[in-house]
Every structure is written in structure tokens, then in C-alpha cells.
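Attaching the record inline, Q. Sequence:
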Amino acid sequence: MERRQFAKLVLCTLLGLLVLTGSVCARQREFVDMVGNKVIIPTPDSIERVGVLTSPQVQIMYIIGHQDKLVAMTQSQYRFKLFEKFYPAQANIAAPRRQAADMNVEALLAANPQFCIGSSMDMDLVDKATRIPTVRIDTQGDPAKVFETRKAEVTMFGEIFGAQDRAKAYCDYLDMTINKLKERTASIPENQKLKVYLGFNPDHLTTYGGDTFMQYQIEAAGLRNAAAEVKSAGGREGGLVTVSMENILMWNPDILVIDSGTIESVKNDPHWANINAVKNNKVFVLPVGGFIWNRPSCESAVLLPMWLAINAYPELFADTDIRTEIKRYWKEIIGFELSDADVEGILHP
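Structure, as predicted:
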């Protein structure tokens, strides 16, 4: 009798282990990332801790409504306080990634993510230093497909976290915005489209050439990139490259966008005084929202072309207010209601 009871106990234990093992297996799945790699990650219902280790993609966690799962991010995210206003916990999220391929591995391990998402450059480093599963975004795709790439990123995040509805809402919103811009600017002959120069850093001599994602965001606004002849895809941060003042004078842009200094300082600088953009008071400071708008992010894909188009062709967008557009994006896509002061902070950083 005792033997039968013992055997029964062993059998029950084994069955219990099989059930437990089965449930553990059911909580994992094989996932194919944007570059075609297969990785084992938790199922959506069992994701609790994730590291997103490329700066523009951190905002996708907010787009899909799963920022509460974020336990590791990039240090640059600390600079942008708009998300933090609505989600104060961001201030306490570990930031082991300093910049591209510069990772504090100990801090990443201490954050204990179940898996990480990021560029191949950063995920290669994680692979070498840890056993944390890694999911890759595609940072080497065709620049001409910048909007498709943004949608593919958000769609992938939606699939990972089971937030397909939120992801689709973003994709539809982006399509709607780009289609509106295309319709409004379609009648402008190519040779009459205004030329815009985006000049970054204090000297305003860093920009994006014609073989970068920015070329196509500019074109979406019905504009021409003054630096279109420059090849800069191999440059830093998505293709940034330094040009000369001689280049600027030759291009003579109709619109100038800066991210450093003030409009007055440009107007008072004799080097810039004779450029059409300066003479015609078409100098603007680049907005800064949840992240800087001169990087390939979901926010800039929607709002930068709209902002450019409204400033370039106010007569074509008389019924469109950029402040309303910014509030609408943040409300419908992020789920946060911006105040008038928040919007002014974006437009006048």
C-alpha cells in the first residue's frame, strides 16, 4: 500500500513538473525582428521588463502604451522632459546606453530586462557581453522608405507587446498626414518649390544630404533640400555631414532652420545676411518635442513635414494650425493632453 502511495506521489509530481514546464514554454515564443533574425522572447502577456537602447525608439513604448515595461533606455532620453511630465517614473529608469555602441553592461544587467530592442550595432554589443535576448530594428534601410520604416518599427513593437491596435493607429495617422501634405502641395511646379536648409550646431554648417532620410521628409513637405547634392549617408547620426559657408551662399535657401542660437543672431551675422531666407524673414528654430525633430523618429516623421509645409506655404495651409496638429498627435497617438505652454515649449525650445 505504501509503495502504491509512493508511486502515485511520484507520478503526480512528474505530471506537475510536465504541466509547469509546458506553461513555461507557452510563455516564450520565437519572434522574427526587422533584420530577419529569429529570437526567443516572452509572450505579450508575460513581458514585464524590457530595455530599448536606441534613442528615437524609446518613444514607441509610449505610442503602444507600454512605457511601464521600460527598465533600460538611453541617456539622451533624460534630456527630453515632455514624456517625463506625463510619466514621472521615466526619471528613474536606468540608462545604460550612453551613445551608439557605448554601453554600461553592469548597469544593463542590474536593470534585468527580459530582452532588449535596438540597432544592430548596440544589440551586437549586448550579445557579446550578456545572455539577454536581443531584437533588432533596421537602421540601414532605404532612406527613401523613411515613412515605411517608421511604420514597420511601430508595427514590430505592437506585435511584440500585443498592442497591434495602437500600432495601427500610428500607421494610419502617419499615412493621413503625408497624404494631406501631398494633396496640398501637388500643384506646385518642381522648379517653384522652396528650398530649405537645415543647419545644425552653433555654426549651422551641419546638415543632411540628399541620400538621407531627411531628404524624403523635406520632399513630403513639398520642399526641396538645399543640400540635396551632398552625399552624407555614411555620416554620423543618420547622415549628418559638415558643409561650408560657400555651399550655403551658392544654394541660397529660401528657408533656414537652425537648432542652436537665435534667429536674431543669424540675422545679425554678415555671413548669412544676404541669403534669401534671412532677407525674407524665413528663419525658424527647430522644434523639440518628446525627442529632437532632426532624427528619424516617429514624432518627427509626422510633425516635421507638417511644420515645414505650414511655414513654407501658409496660403496652402490657412486652415491648419501647427499648435492644433501637435496637440492632436500627442492626444490621439501618445494619449497625453498637452497644455498651450507645452506646445509653446515644443515650438520654441
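The chain has two domains: 26-167, 187-347. DSSP finds 14 helices and 14 strands in the chain.

More tomorrow.
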